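Before a colleague's protein record goes any further, I have to sign it off. I want your independent view on whether this chain really folds as the tokens say. The record follows directly below this note.
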Amino acid sequence: MFFFTLNSIINDVPYAIILFVWVYFVVMFISKKFYELAVKHGFSEHSGTYFGRKVIHILAGGLVAILLPFLFHEPVLPLVLAAVLTIAVYIPHKTGKLYYWFQDPTNMYEVDFTIAWGLMAFFLWFLDKSFWLAVVPMLFMAWGDGVTGIVRNFKYRKRVKGWEGSLAMLVTCLPIGAIAGWVGIVSAVLATLAEKQKYIDDNLAVPLVTVAILVLAKFLFPAYLTF
């Protein structure tokens, strides 16, 4: 039994190309400009790097995620593009030639981000072919975590798990979670708590917690989900 059709994949190609070009532009130009702007206004280079990374979260990962239900029929090309981006951000860590405006030599969290994004887009499609089951945790990870990082960076000028960022994430995630109904709202609260912990990269913790809740609800309490 074939889950995917060649015609649907071909129809997705133009959107995949356009969005890949957009992601490339965000990563190589827009995020770099934000890094340079931050450093110019007195932020440290390390702090500027996190501004650059969060801009990518919001304008690349988040924007593409919200477009999935409207543009794509199947998850093959989103997975392929996520895999390409994973390789593209992993290699600099191994060669030592980092994209300094968004990559930190002390961690590879952006690699976790692209892996988590691609796996959610692909596997959750089998449970919800509208893509929304994947989009909600994607947006928690991209927009929720992106906003919290920017707020904390302005406040502390370094990577600190301050409560101001957690509040900003909660405010961002609640309306996103509402897309999924009451279960989504609960998952927004728990995703915020998952981001707050310091032991697991939040690019893994946030989607793991959110996906677990949404998938369990899909099977056990479908009436509380709106898709």
Notes: The chain has one domain: 8-224. DSSP finds eight helices and no strands in the chain.
